[in-house]
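Lab notebook, design round three. We kept the backbone fixed and only want residue identities now. Task for the bench partner: fill in a sequence for the structure below.
Input structure tokens:
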């Protein structure tokens, strides 16, 4: 590929929405950089999309810095960053363990903030695009859901980042899925849920707009989801 080929970096890339987005990005002519903690799945996907697989724990600042440094050493640029790493937990403030809560908040909130911080200079250089995975749960509170609270934080972070990037040429988009049939859920959805490809197409829609068009939020639900 040419040195001018744009680079699309995805955290949480090993399965689900991240993996689907990597495939769509490769089809659109991007060079994918795939980051996650699961190296085996990453390597298989990287071979499929002709991308670069890099292990990264998004809750570790050193890992995030190394991810950006290796990407720039390899490709010289970062054009799109999709901060997609995250996971959920049981609803109810008496459910789950404090250790699980801590890991969820560190991944869903702190990890996203670190991705923004680590990639900000490269995105300013490329006048690129930052996308964050929030959720319908980041727009309306769910009973007893610390996950919902963490996604409210991501929703706020998206607007805060947009303001921070203002006048730099960098665009910022929040992706807010409803129920998606991915490994995120322990049990299959009881309705016809969205597929990971549906969310990947929404990501690529935002990215494909002209440079002066900044799609700030995409809230996408299955037709059958009532709330």
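Proposed sequence:
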């Amino acid at each position: 590929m040419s040195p001018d080929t744009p680079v699309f970096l995805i955290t949480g890339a090993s399965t689900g929405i991240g993996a689907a987005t990597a495939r769509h990005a490769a089809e659109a002519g991007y060079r994918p950089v795939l980051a996650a903690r699961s190296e085996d799945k990453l390597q298989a996907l990287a071979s499929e999309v002709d991308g670069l697989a890099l292990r990264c724990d998004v809750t570790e600042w050193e890992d995030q810095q190394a991810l950006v440094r290796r990407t720039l050493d390899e490709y010289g640029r970062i054009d799109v960053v999709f901060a997609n790493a995250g996971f959920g937990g049981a609803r109810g403030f008496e459910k789950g363990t404090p250790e699980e809560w801590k890991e969820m908040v560190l991944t869903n909130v702190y990890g996203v903030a670190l991705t923004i911080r680590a990639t900000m200079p490269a995105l300013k250089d490329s006048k690129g695009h930052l996308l964050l995975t929030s959720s319908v749960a980041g727009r309306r509170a769910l009973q007893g859901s610390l996950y919902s609270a963490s996604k409210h934080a991501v929703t706020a972070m998206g607007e805060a980042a947009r303001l921070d990037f203002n006048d730099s040429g960098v665009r910022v988009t929040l992706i807010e899925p409803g129920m998606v049939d991915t490994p995120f859920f322990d049990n299959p959805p009881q309705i016809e849920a969205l597929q990971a490809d549906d969310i990947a197409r929404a990501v690529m829609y935002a990215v494909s707009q002209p440079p002066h068009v900044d799609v700030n939020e995409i809230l996408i639900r299955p037709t059958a989801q009532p709330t």
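Keep this in mind before ordering anything: The helical segments are 16-27, 39-49, 61-75, 98-126, 146-165, 196-207.
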